[in-house]
Design goal:
Layout: E1 16-24, E2 27-38, E3 45-52, H1 58-70
Antiparallel strand pairs: 1-2, 2-3
């Protein structure tokens, strides 16, 4: 089971997860994805270039993205 996303540390909005394929047409890594997390309200984002299914399975890649988002803290 995936961890639950915490609200954005900057504005409190609930973010969304974007599943991005790592291929286009016949180029790239077919069947592999990366996951980015975005807040629509303030624009806060977590993009993990190596957090993709080339290096791990899809469930673990998703959990890695969620864990990275949940570790974010508000900065002054």
């Amino acid at each position: 089971m995936s961890e639950q996303l915490k609200p954005c540390p900057f504005c409190g909005n609930i973010p969304y997860i974007e599943k991005i394929p790592l291929w286009h047409g016949s180029h790239g890594y077919y069947g592999c994805f990366k996951f980015d997390i975005h807040c629509d309200k303030c624009g806060c984002t977590v993009n993990l270039g190596k957090n993709n299914t080339i290096y791990t399975d899809e469930k673990q890649a998703l959990n890695n993205a969620i864990n990275a988002w949940n570790r974010r803290t508000k900065t002054k």
